[in-house]
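P.,

For your records, the input lines for the assembly:
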Amino acid sequence: MNFDVTILGCGAATPTQRLRPTAQVVSVRDHYFLLDCGEGTQIQLRQYGIKMQRIEVIFISHLHGDHIYGLIGLLSTFSLLGRTADLTIVGPPELQEWLALTFRISDTYLSFPLHFIETNKSSEWIWENDFLKVKSIPVKHRMACNAYLFVEKPLERKIVKSFIPHYRLTLDELLVLKKDKPIHREDGKVIEPNEVCSPRQQVRKYFFCTDTLPLKLEDEDLIGIDLLYHEATFLEDHVKRAKETHHSTARQAAEVALFYQARKLILGHFSARYPDLCAFELEAGSVFPQVECAQEGTKYSIEIIESR
Ligand SMILES: [Zn+2]
Ligand SMILES: [Zn+2]
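Structure tokens returned:
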């Protein structure tokens, strides 16, 4: 029941020897999702031993080159390797246009079905499967840009076996309790799920929020996120530049983490002007101590906390 985030790139603007542009893999219950696809993403996937053909959905935040210039190459490689499994891309409407034009000009034909889901100007649950749902949330950048919130769906509740004969629970009643609903019997007795079920499993949440001015959104789904990846392109020494370019500083990212009551903050999208990233942790840490600078190749796991 894993829920992991592996950083493939955490630099801003251009690829350098030190940092690659934005890309990361989210793996939930052994299913793989790609978030953004900066130049060189397919090399990073190979470098860190991630089976790229297992990626099911690619979520793109916006159309700046440092978030999409790896996508054409990656899709082309999928095809050259003979992929037949469907792939879904979630992103801004113009993305489909850009891909279609490039594939036409370069005479590229994909070996697999490609599906598009277009993001909109308002927040919405944009994709889901049996165990996971993803919300696209518009943020404030120089062009249309979306953050993505990954929320695990709750598992069915487990009934403590000894209570089945004790309460003489029928099969229909068990099904109701597993869905976390109370039973109302004809004699007026109410059996609450908490009386007969083991503790409710925590619903794990990951929020990917990059290329934006700092925003404190009034969205209750964001409160109590387990892991927040937030861009911190600059330090406070360039707060003016951050505002001009619609980016955030490390301190501002920390204030956002505090506002959402996040459990942990990962900073990324660092400007190449900073050779040493220690200052990012120091600046953000004075506001929000559970902070780390993203490191390429590092996997951040969200563990289940039963008692929360
Ligand atoms: Zn960027
Ligand atoms: Zn951007």
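Two observations worth noting. The mean pLDDT is 95. The first strand starts at residue 3 and ends at 9.

Regards
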